[in-house]
Amino acid sequence: WGGPALLATGLAVALASSSVVAETIRIEVDGVDRAIADNIRGFLTLGRYAERDDVTDAQVRRLADRAVDEAADALRPFGFYEPVIRSRTSRDDARWIVRLKVKPGEPVLVQAVEVRITGPGAEHAALNQLAATSPLQPGTRLEHASYDRLRNDLLRTALDNGFLDARLTRRELIVNPVERTASAHLALETGGQYRFGAIEIEQDVLRDELLERFVRFESGQVFSNDRIRSTQFALEDSNFFSTVAISPGQRDPGTLTVPVSIRAEPIKRDRYTVSLGSGTDTDLRGRFAWENRRVNTRGHRLRFEVTASSVLQEVVTRYIIPVGDPALEKLEFSAGYINEELGDLDSERYELIGSLTQAMGNWQRVLFFKLNQETTDFPDGTSNEQLLLIPGISYASMPPNFLTGWMRTAAYYFELSGSPETLGSDSSYLRFYSRAERVWPLSGPWHLRLRGEFGSSWVNDFSELPASQRFFAGGDRSVRGFALDELSPRVEVVAPSGEVSQQSIGGEHKLVGSIELERDIFTNFRAAVFYDTGNAFSDWSAPLEYSVGVGLRWRLPMLLIGFDIAQALSEPDKNPRLHLNITQVL
Length: 586
Prior knowledge:
Helices cover about 15% and strands about 50% of the residues. It is of the alpha+beta class.
């Protein structure tokens, strides 16, 4: 396992250091917190020479002397106008070390903050709230960034609320370094509040009443660029159009209205997708899909997909009808054949599914009903064929800015389903499943990621529960260090040769937790260390398995690619496992 061990060592080194480029000059700043020290380094001309190998001793000493004045300039945005800074230069073999010892002195304190709003928007709640919630308050240490943020937020909020003629008539930050006081003065003249005027739509793809449900504004509403952006996103994301142009017209100061034109061109009706890939859970996998994106002017779609890997073969046809808010809600019918390995069970099933997806605030609800004809093959050679009618409901969290190019720090999912014999099912059970993931920013480049899963089922005879409704753990997005679906209750199976093996058959319950510490190392890259624990089981007294590992994260638009190496600690005789997973950005 030399390859994974070498990669693990490299990732651990990357986590400890944010740069692998050798430094010719190391700059150390003592006496101030990290944010101020980073700002000082960013101001220094010396920093631009830190990784050059052609710097002379004379240049280093000259730039180190200049660094004292530059550091003093870098302290002023934080309210320190009378610092005492000393510079010391030394050598460590081929590398220069420049140490700045900073005594920032007494800070300048904010004495007064005056925000005056005049015009028709003088009483607007969002504008008046800005001054109250700003960190720029009397008695606090002056930070120029807080003043800049308040000034910019005033103008941005005015524009976002339809005050398109708003302007700052006064913007002053007066600093008295001798008395160590400062006062901020901002005056905003809002002008009138504009509203959406006539809306002109040019397209021949969808019926007008359907397209109008994509539009996030209407005539008479307060003008908002956010509403225009979310409409642009909704129409582009619909995949009905190749191009979408939303253009506000010339605003009319007399009527305080802004006309808007929407022009959209149709996208190609048929779309074909072929993809090949490989994952540590699935080995080689491939997918072919054909989609008719414009079945009719009512926005109906037809999609056919074939997926194949070492653990899953699937053929599914879907028919999708937009309802309600067509950007977020739909009625979907699907029919499919699935042949899937789950632990050491084989599940072959035919499914008919009807579902209704609805948006409810920041949640998306799905009501579904499945007709499932499933055959489960067990390791001992027996099989069980069942007909299941499965109604269910699920809730998934949506990002609050879903229609403006979303990013989120948390994701939650809950599902409750069951198969009552009273509906004609061959077995009766109730099943609950949930998962959650959240990322918290810590100090500087550090982030904390927590992930968890919980599932439980209630069934009189577990042997009647088909494979697709049992719980398994282990794999790239579960307990790393273990193979996909490796963790669950096991049974002994005797082969014809007399060899006895332990086979995974799934459990009634599932519990998984993960804690991960991540550090930014380059643009769009993070290194991580993690601890995973969990298991699938039928007895609540069953022990949890656990593992540790290191990883590398590559952030792409809307995607996060992760490379992990994990070592099972609860079963230390296992070799380390390499995991590759691709998920939505979180």
